[in-house]
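Weekly sync, protein design subgroup
Attendees: M.S., D.O., the rotation student, P.L. (late)

Item 1: inverse folding check
M.S. brought a backbone from last month's batch and wanted to see whether the design step gives back something sensible before we order anything. D.O. pointed out we never logged the input encoding, so this time it goes straight into the notes. Structure tokens as presented (217 positions):
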């Protein structure tokens, strides 16, 4: 699927205590921006100090090797074809992963995944994990600007936000197909984590405010 790509981040040491989520489940959809997932996973592991696991859609495996993501995360990945993490595990793998995670990052998130999540559709490993997630879920969109600006996509984004999901605004980047500049690129991992930290902080603040408010009866 045509999409924009942004420049790879430079590693910059970050205190391990700077990011609140310690166990991050990364959902990888079928965008060319999936090539940024292995270095992003390594950044989260070795600079941020988080434990990272991943689940891939079938189309994502056509763009990025599951093996490369497994090496970057240090764990087998969950796939749709019965291979990878949990292939021989009799337990419900997606429930184990979502219960394990402090945070779920859908990175990259295609228009297709945004639409499925907004409609509550769970017809593959990734969308099943999204629907089963008990931790905060943040989508990192990646698509060309023509798709991103479509009313249908923006309606889905609005629905996801109303449902309590985080949706990171895409960056401006170059289209992989024709090299044109436009909005729709997946931001680099440092920008993703900065935005996500603010989202998580707001979630905690909102939860504390709700807990301290009087119960209306």
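Designed sequence read out in the meeting:
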């Amino acid at each position: 699927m045509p999409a924009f790509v942004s420049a790879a981040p430079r590693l910059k040491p970050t205190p391990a205590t700077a990011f609140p989520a310690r166990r991050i489940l990364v959902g990888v959809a079928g965008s060319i921006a999936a090539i940024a997932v292995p270095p992003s996973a390594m950044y989260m592991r070795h600079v941020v100090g988080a434990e990272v696991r991943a689940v891939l859609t079938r189309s994502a495996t056509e763009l990025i090797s599951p093996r490369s993501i497994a090496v970057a995360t240090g764990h087998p990945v969950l796939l749709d074809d019965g291979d990878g993490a949990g292939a021989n595990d009799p337990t419900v793998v997606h429930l184990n992963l979502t219960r394990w995670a402090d945070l779920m990052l859908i990175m990259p998130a295609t228009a297709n995944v945004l639409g499925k999540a907004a409609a509550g559709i769970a017809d593959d490993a990734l969308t099943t994990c999204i629907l089963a997630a008990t931790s905060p879920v943040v989508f990192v969109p990646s698509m060309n600007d023509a798709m991103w600006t479509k009313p249908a996509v923006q309606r889905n984004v609005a629905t996801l936000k109303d449902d309590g999901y985080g949706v990171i605004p895409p960056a401006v980047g170059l289209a992989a197909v024709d090299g044109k500049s436009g909005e729709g690129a997946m931001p680099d991992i440092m920008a993703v984590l900065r935005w996500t930290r603010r989202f998580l902080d707001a979630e905690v603040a909102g939860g504390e405010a709700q807990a301290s408010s009087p119960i209306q009866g």
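Discussion: The longest helix spans residues 189-212. The longest strand covers residues 103-109.
Action: P.L. to compare against the previous round before Friday.
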